[in-house]
Design a protein that fits this description.
By secondary structure, this protein is an alpha/beta fold. The chain contains 17 helices and 30 strands. β18, α11 and β19 form a beta-alpha-beta unit. The longest helix has 18 residues. The N and C termini lie far apart (84 Å).
Length: 585
């Protein structure tokens, strides 16, 4: 009987195992159902939309991943769903992973604030094992903030068992070395110019008169926004967007002739600077001749009508890169501009919307003309670096600095954003650092405190990457990116604060003297309580005080104070003034 009892026990155990779902080490997709509610009045926080018991019966259903349905809406929207962990294998941690949000997110779990993420298109995660270990259903709520175009949760959301957290965020691209960028572009400060706004005349010839001042800032690379004729059909504003290109082989008459542009290029090169042109490869103006000659090169809807890339971009028509003839036209056109004008490369608008294989072909075609040609992608996807682009946009650091100066983020979040970046981009990839560009409201408007604004720019200017100055930023110009992108709004240089330019020039001089392209970089302080950050870049130790209080600290091994609001105290400690930065060696 004893032997029969043992056999019965084994059979029961085997049946139990057979009927259980297997322990899993695979991703568990969170597919919903998801619900959405727009928050244009910004009442969600006060109304407790994150609470477990909040009534969401009137929220609309929404697919994730994807963008929200209202393409014209910018601002806040809330997402909600439920999650449950199932049969996670013993010895594994569990992460809640977001491949991408557009642009920023605040996350609640069961009504409690769980975490935040800043920056478009950045993969991020939170360890969530302890919260979900009970196997019950839990409530997940996100508040998404979009800063331009339709927002949303535009990447998959899933639970992933893991052992090593590096495996959660490491992208395939990060396992590769970035193709070597031109040596002249390494560690190079960039200056963005909207030609029609730069001078009272708004011309190539007038811009030549400003080159010495630009050079004196410490600039080595000039990026000109598009210089082509601007479309008139469906034009936005009275002057129109330069990103609505009417003719790829011409310059805008209001800016000057092709010969005058060539003269500008020569003057830039004469001053040992380089120049890249902003090119729009994803769409054209509606009255571009290509629309008449080659309508098959455009994207058509089900009724056969040519369509814009999205509803908001009504002044342009979408190109279809499935057409090989379009690709050949674009490759020849890019080669022509390098051959004809001797430019050094391109900044490509919305590079993420054009297929990667085209970019690889474009880089090869351009290198056949000029070996050290440079590509800057308006995009943040890591794989852009493996398909022809030398540098991508660091939207994560833009968001981090703006949020930090506005009191909506902590230094630890900035540090985390930078560290996540290191696991996502190819080794040696160049990242453009900025606190403003033509697509965003001026930083002096977003951060009116002059010292705080300069401290934020200095943070990105001395860190790893290539710093950008958007023309006018160096004198504290304010304003929204609209209507400036659609109207003629000449820069008010006479009433500018040139003290800002002096600081920027000094900072770039420090960078040039002490920091090399391969200098080691490490964030060493991210103090949430004191709102202070510090990092070491090459021989420089830099401190940034984002608070309204003086920060007192010690710095062992200090040789000298090089710059900024740092003073040495009688007891050999150092003090950093409120909202200021300091550089020591």
């Amino acid at each position: 009987m004893k032997q029969i009892h043992h056999i019965l026990v084994l059979v029961v155990a085997a049946l139990a195992l057979f009927n259980c779902e297997p322990l899993s080490t695979e991703e568990q997709m969170i597919e919903g159902p998801w619900v959405l509610k727009y928050d244009s009045a910004k009442v969600g926080l006060r109304a407790g939309w994150f609470d477990n018991d909040y009534d969401r019966s009137d929220w609309e259903t929404i697919e994730v991943p994807g963008s929200w349905g209202d393409e014209d809406y910018d601002g806040f929207a809330w997402y909600a769903t439920t999650i449950q962990a199932k049969h996670v294998a013993a010895g594994y941690n569990l992460a809640l992973v977001f491949d991408s949000v557009d642009d920023n997110a605040v996350i609640w779990l069961d009504g409690r604030l769980f975490g935040k993420q800043m920056g478009y298109g950045v993969k991020f995660y939170f360890d969530i094992g302890e919260q979900l270990s009970d196997g019950k259903i839990h409530h997940l709520v996100l508040r998404i903030e979009d800063t331009g175009g339709p927002g949303g949760i535009n990447g998959p959301v899933y639970l992933e068992p893991y052992i090593d957290e590096v495996d959660l965020v490491r992208s395939e691209a990060s396992k590769h070395k970035a193709p070597k960028a031109p040596s002249w572009a390494l560690n190079t400060p960039v200056y963005e110019i909207f030609v029609r706004q730069q001078t009272p005349e708004g011309t190539f010839t007038a811009l030549i008169g400003d080159l010495d001042r630009i050079k004196s800032l410490g600039i080595e690379l000039i990026w000109l926004m598009p210089i082509h004729p601007i479309g008139e059909e469906n034009r936005k504003g009275t002057a129109g967007s330069p990103y609505a290109v009417k003719d790829y082989y011409a310059t805008s008459p209001e800016l000057g002739s092709l010969d005058e542009f060539k003269a500008l290029v020569k003057e830039i090169h004469k001053r040992d600077m380089h120049i890249i042109l902003d090119f729009v490869m994803n769409h054209t103006a509606w009255d571009n001749q290509l629309m008449t000659d080659h309508p098959q090169w455009y994207t058509h809807d089900e009724s056969g009508e040519i369509v814009p890339p999205n509803a908001d971009w009504s002044d342009v028509a979408d190109l279809n890169y499935d057409n090989p003839e379009l690709r050949n036209y674009m490759l020849e056109m890019l080669q022509w501009w390098i051959t004809e004008t001797d430019i050094d490369g391109y900044r490509f608008d919305v590079a993420e919307l054009v297929p990667n294989d085209f970019w690889a072909d474009a880089k090869k075609a351009c290198q056949d003309i000029k070996r050290d040609v440079f590509f800057l992608a308006e995009g943040a996807r890591p794989d852009l670096h493996l398909n022809g682009h030398d540098m991508t946009y660091s939207w994560n650091m833009w968001e981090a600095m703006i949020q930090l100066t506005q009191g909506n983020a902590d230094p630890s979040e900035v540090k985390r954003s930078y560290e996540l970046e290191q696991f996502q981009y190819p080794q040696g990839a160049l990242r453009m650092r900025f606190t403003e560009n033509h697509d965003k409201t001026r930083s002096a408007t977003l951060t009116p405190n002059r010292d705080l604004n300069l401290t934020a720019w200095s943070f990105i200017a001395l860190m790893k990457g290539n710093p950008l100055i958007y023309a006018g930023q160096e004198i504290g110009v304010t304003g929204e990116y609209t209507p400036a992108i659609f109207e003629r709004v000449p820069m008010d240089w006479e009433n500018g604060d040139f003290g800002i330019a002096e600081v920027m020039s000094d900072v770039l001089a420090l960078r040039k003297e002490h920091i090399k392209a391969d200098s080691p970089f490490q964030i060493i302080i991210a103090d949430n309580d004191k709102q202070v950050m510090a990092y070491k870049h090459g021989p420089l130790l830099t401190f940034y005080n984002f608070s309204a209080d003086t920060f007192k600290f010690s710095a062992g091994g200090m040789e000298s104070i090089l710059y900024g609001g740092v003073t040495e105290n009688p007891d050999s400690t150092l003090s950093l003034l409120p909202h200021q930065f300091g550089v020591i060696k």
